[in-house]
């Protein structure tokens, strides 16, 4: 008889590991309470600890990206303004429109 593999949602795993890291419960208590094996709990804890530095890197990387977006938005605004000026200058330099509404 084969056993089906259980799947746990991410928020459940995070809650259990947080209880473990804060010392709210011992690993044995958590395993009994939630019916998980100690190896699985250890795996979840290791995954959290391995990825923990990336939480702070994301903030630094996000700030760089936000600044880049702001710079690009400024550039687009400047180019749109320049384009309007060039369109107006083009109309002034080509002279009055011909009788059919087209310039020559």
Number of strands: 0
The helix/strand order is: HHH
**Tally of alpha and pi helices:** 3
Poorly predicted tracts of residues: none
Name the overall outline. rod-shaped
Roughly what percent helix? over 70%
In terms of DSSP E residues, the strand content is: under 5%
How many separate domains?
Answer: 1
* Helix/strand class: mainly alpha
Span between N and C termini? 87 Å
Evaluate the radius of gyration.
Answer: 31 Å
Residue-averaged pLDDT = 88
How would you characterize the largest beta sheet? none
What does this structure look like?
With 104 residues, the protein is mostly helical. The protein has one domain (10-93). Helices cover 74% and strands 0% of the residues. The protein has 3 helices and no strands. Helix 1 packs across helix 3. The chain is rod-shaped, with a radius of gyration of 31 Å. The N and C termini lie far apart (87 Å).
Task: Give a quick set of tags describing it.
3 helices; 104 residues; 74% helix; single chain; mainly alpha
Short structural summary:
This protein has 104 residues and is mainly α. It has helices spanning 10-22, 27-34, 38-93.
Q: What is the element layout, followed by pairings?
A:
Layout: H1 10-22, H2 27-34, H3 38-93
């Amino acid at each position: 008889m084969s056993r089906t593999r259980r799947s746990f949602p991410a928020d459940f795993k995070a809650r259990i590991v947080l209880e473990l890291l804060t010392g709210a419960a011992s690993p044995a208590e958590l395993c009994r309470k939630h019916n998980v094996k100690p190896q699985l709990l250890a795996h979840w804890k290791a995954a959290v600890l391995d990825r923990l530095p990336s939480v702070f890197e994301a903030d630094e990387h996000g700030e760089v990206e936000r600044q880049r977006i702001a710079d690009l938005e400024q550039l687009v605004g400047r180019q749109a303004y320049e384009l309007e000026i060039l369109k107006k200058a083009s109309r002034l330099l080509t002279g009055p429109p011909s009788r059919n509404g087209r310039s020559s």
